[in-house]
Amino acid sequence: MGTCMICELRRTAADVRGVGWTSQHGPDGAVSWICPTCTRAQLWQIEAGLPLDEIRPRATRHAA
Description:
The protein is of the alpha+beta class. The chain has helices spanning about 15, 35-40, 45-50, and strands at about 20-25, 30-35.
């Protein structure tokens, strides 16, 4: 199921069925997941198609 590539929040079975999480697909076919909170915070980068792999995980995690 994975974790958020930014804050490392765990993606649950309920999250898999929902539409709150976004994904980033790498050139090698790898899929990275981004939680709803981080998606909102990084929306401008996602919409512009900028890579998110240089973002470092946050020191504190947000509540689910």
